[in-house]
Structures are given as structure tokens and as C-alpha cells.
Amino acid sequence: MEFLGFERPKDLVGVRSIVLVMAIADCTEPAARMIAEGMEGAVPVTQDHGCIAMDVVPTLVGVARNPNVAGTLLVAMGCEGIQPEPLIEEIAKMGKPVDVVNIQKIGSTRRAISRGRDLARGMVEQAKKQRRKPFDVSRLVVGVKCGGSDTTSGLAANPAIGVMSDMLVDAGAAVVMIEPIEAIGAEKPLAARAVNEKVKQQILKWIGDEEKRWTVPGAEMDFMCRGNIEGGLTTLEEKSLGAIHKSGHRPIKGVLKNTEDYVETVPPGGGFYLQDGTHSEPAAMSYMAAAGVHIVVFATGRGGTFGHAICPIIKVTGNPDTWSRMSEDMDINASTIMEGKESIESVGKRVVEEVLAVASGRMTLGEQSGLYNFSVWRRDPRLEVLLGITQQWD
Amino acid sequence: MKRAIMMDEKDNVATALVGLVAGERVEVVSSAQEVLEQVMVKDAIPLGHKIALANMAEGDEVIKYGETIGKASRDISVGDYVHIHNVESIRLPLTEHMLRSK
Fold this sequence. Notes:
The structure holds 2 protein chains of 2 kinds.
Chain A: E1 2-8, E2 12-14, E3 18-23, H1 29-36, E4 42-45, H2 57-65, E5 69-76, H3 84-92, E6 98-102, H4 103-106, H5 109-128, E7 133-136, E8 141-146, H6 153-170, E9 174-177, H7 187-191, H8 197-214, H9 226-230, H10 236-244, E10 252-256, E11 271-275, H11 281-290, E12 295-299, E13 313-317, H12 320-326, E14 332-333, H13 335-338, H14 344-359, H15 365-368, H16 381-387
Chain B: E1 3-5, E2 13-16, E3 25-29, E4 35-40, E5 50-52, E6 61-64, E7 67-72, E8 81-82, E9 87-88, H1 96-100
């Protein structure tokens, strides 16, 4: 299996050549947006946790280092707690262009935008010169996620994506699943897939910590709700097994951590990994992007439509009604499983073909619609302390 | 004939791929869409809900996806509707609050 990707420094391969115009915090978001406006290949991003949230820095650096990104222009006000220089230093280690416009240094927002457009255009033109080359699928990192789930998700889309996960891992690629909340109740089958005792303990901590966060006395959240039961889900175990089905069945090589200091990236060599993080879609995609994921495959029964600034999102629906009403947004029809027209394996193979085509440059429907969502998730450090959750994983 | 899917060969329940009416026969198919057996449905079963493929005694494990999804809270026989009235979670008991929450 091969795909056509972009060669990057540090022996990395990208599937897109994006120029990120990154407002360090949301005070410079309008400037970043205006710099990227109408400039094909440039995508504006920001984070809205404020400019002293130092713990979002690893995610910002991580997404800029993602191999789908050809270059990064930071947009700084100048007075931020998060200063641009350390970010530039970290991003530059990947050997890719990175620069900054500083509004207070330049002395005018308008001049900063004008200067920013020149810099961003230069990076876009440089990126456009590069041609795709064939690479083995073992260089690819694919994320799996589900959301807007319904009764068909655990029967059609997630199992088909699970087939894809196994096929890609068998071919040497890496597959990553984030979202520990959906694994609560599926500890046993996931722990049984750990490659060793250390990873098994990491998996149990990954799930156990998340359960603690959502079961604070007085602020508990239900892991099962009436809608689940009306849809046919009887127990939490059944709900979770349906969700994690997209992870396939291959051994789990590790849990990728994120702390206030770093986001762990997917090691070379392929295989299946879990990742600590959130369930919230665009923010989860940003976390996966920061870990080096190229493409995310997303199961959605009800038809969630969004994209991501860095990772193309391939949407798979198992709901025949969603497919017929929303085929402009859904990349893959898995409802053929519900209708008895196609096996789960056959749909899984089609997902693999789509992943390789998208990796080689085919635009997803979300990309065609210009959906480039981006948000950054931040763990509440006070809650972690109060609950006694540590980042001691070993 | 209407169909229900058995997600793994170890399962003792199948999931209805369309709504089923009490008294009708249903084809049980594998994930490869092969017809495995026919079962007489004893109750109305909505799309996405489960039907018993084996007799289970109270306390027996209910298996879907090849894994335990809970235990029988009363005896279940082939063709019965399998849901919260006869299965309970081992991991997390159902609460009144969950039944009310959306």
C-alpha cells in the first residue's frame, strides 16, 4: 500500500501543505483571520483560553509541527504571557519555515496584517512548489473518532472503521484513538490488548482518571441516558464496546500522554495507540494533530459536519436516512451494512481506499466545503489537583 | 425476510436491523451478511434493539461483540426481547436519573 505525500524535513511525510496563520491567543484572532483571508492554502487558527494559559503551548507547538503543515506564521500582540520566541524555537526544530508578526512592535494592526499577508503569501508560494511523491503506508498516521452517534454507529460505521484500523496496522501504519470517556465500561477488552503490563496499567489509568473527572460528588454526569436506552443500548458495557469497535482488534502499544509540558507524538514504526485527551470533536482533532495524526476517520450516525484546520476528516455514516439526506457531507456510506447489501469487511476496505486517496490529495467533502474547524482543549489543572490525578504514567 | 445481525460468533444476542413484529421469523446474519439461522421473535423489537439467540438463566452473561455486556436479571429464552427489563450492567447499575436524562 502506498500514497502520494509531501516530503518534510526530519524524515517526515505530510498529506497536505497548509500554511498556519496562528493567533497566539484570541486577542489577535481577527488579525490572523484577515491575514489568511482569500489566501488559498493559508488557514487561520487560535485558542481561546487566554494568553497566560501556558499549558496550551504544547498543543500549539504540536499542531505547527504536524507534517501536514508546510509553514507557520504566528500573530502576536506583543504583551502576551505566551511569548512567540519560545514557540518559534520549538517549531523551527522541525526544519520548517516559521515567522511572527508582532502588532505592538510594528505599531499598527493594519501594517501588521499587511506584513503578515506578505509573509504568509511567501510561505504559500514556497509550499506550492513542492510535488507529491510515493511513500509506503507505514508512514501514515490515522486517527479514529466517533460523534453524533446513534444506533447504527455500533453496528455499521464503527465496526467498518475497526476493519480499516486492523488493515492499516497490518500494513504498517499507525492508528490512534482518543476519547477516554467512551472507554469507561470497556476496560477489560482494551486492557487485554495491551502489549505488556506497563501499557495495561496505562490503559486502566487512562480510563480511571477520566471516570474520576466525570463522577465528582454533586456534579456527576450520566454515562448512560434515556436516548441511549431508547436507541436499544441496554448497558454501559454495550455502549462502550460499540464505540471502541472503531479501534479494531490489534495490540495496543501505548497511551500517548499530554501534560502541561508536552504532547507525546506517535512513535515511528506503526501500530495501534490510545491518546489521552477530550471527546469534544474539533479539540480532540487538534490533540491528534499535535500527536502527528495525518487524517481522522469519523463515524457519525446523525451526521456531524465539520472539518479540521490540519487533519482532513473522512466521515462515515451507517444511518440510511442520514446518508440519503446528507450525502453532500458524508464521505462514506456504511448504511449498506444495515440494509444487508454489503459486509462490514467490504465497507472497511472502502474506508482504507478512501484514506489512501485522501492521503494522496483527494479533498474530503468537508475540505471541499471549506470546513476548517480548530479549537484547543485545556485540562482544568485545579480539578486534577483536587481529584489527586497525577501525570505519573509509569 | 427481515434481518438481525450477530456481531460476533460468541454472541448470544442479535441486534434488529429493522423493527420486528411479535410472532414473525427473522434471519440472523453474520457481520459478513451470511444467514446463520432463523429465529421466531416473541415480542416487538425496535431497530437497534436486541433479540435472544440462546436460553439464558438469571445471572448468565449476555454476550455482544464477543464480550460481556451485562448479566441476565431473569431467565431469558430464545426469541425474547433483550433489554433493561431482563439484563443489568455489571459495571454500572441503571439509575432513575439515567432513565430521565436526555
